[in-house]
Amino acid sequence: MWHCGCPFITEGNATSASGGSLSDVSVAKALSSDLSWHILDLLMSSELSALEIANALSAKPSLVKLHLRKLVEAGIVVSKENALPDGKTICIYRPTNDAKAVGFPPRNYQFLSDALIEGLIRSLGEDAARTILRDIGERAGEDTAHLLVSKTEVTKWDAKTYAEHFVKNFMSQMKTYPRIIELGNHHIVYEQANCVFLELGIKRPGLVCDVLDQAVRESIDRKLGANESIRLSCMGHGDPTCKYMIKWNSEPNKSVSNQSSQVKRYAEKRSKL
After folding, report:
1. In degrees, to the nearest 5, what angle opens at C-alpha 267 toward C-alphas 266 and 270?
2. Over the stretch 171-205, which tens digit does the pLDDT of each residue have?
3. Which domain holds residue 151?
4. N or C: which end of the chain has fewer CB atoms below 10 A?
5. Domain boundary among 101, 135, 154
6. CA–CA separation, 216 and 145 (whole Å)
7. Are 209 and 191 contained in the same domain?
8. Long-range contacts at 66-71 (CB < 8 A, ≥ 24 apart)
């Protein structure tokens, strides 16, 4: 029987490790070295013992065991005891389904997404592709907003709840590395150093950034009670970060009005492309 032990942790701990969601901290620690990834690469092809892994990678057995322990404790790898002819037992390791959930082995969804967009353009034309991507973005945004409302149980959204639940929590979980620049009673300005559509956006900013991503964000913001959603900068168009200003109701706030020059410059920049 497979379990997360042998001899690193007990089966009681194994249940929580493999039965629930993986801890970001434990996964990050377990996958913080190249050796851990090489170990996972081997285990994807075959169940192996620590010694077999060490021999295959020309690594010290003690070092391999250390990394296996971290992978087991993170719930990424499990082990079982196999009986040997001499009566002794040996631990054999394999990856769990959770190993695939944390992005191993790497998947090239970007290639598939790009192919689908290219197929839309060739089959239906760019105008029709824009319409379809806008509809996809709006539906995705609505689904995301409904998920946020369901998880947070927040029924009335404003700038502060938006900052707490959407920017700090949700966008951080999406690994966009958000940073709040301004936060008032009725507005928020934030930027993100990464974008889930970045590679596609750089290649097709007019479709991916200006249509798909914009539709997702406007739909989310609208469902969360915002009156206005403005993109101030965009990495797909060559800016260092993606920056957004979201407003609830009207607010004669000086700091918000100061952003108007950025909105104007951004619009002028996009019109020249």
Report:
1. 85
2. 988 888 899 999 999 999 999 988 989 889 999 99
3. 110-271
4. N
5. 101
6. 10
7. yes
8. 67/30, 67/33, 67/35, 67/36, 67/39, 68/8, 68/39, 68/93, 69/8, 70/26, 70/29, 70/30, 70/36, 71/30, 71/36, 71/39, 71/40
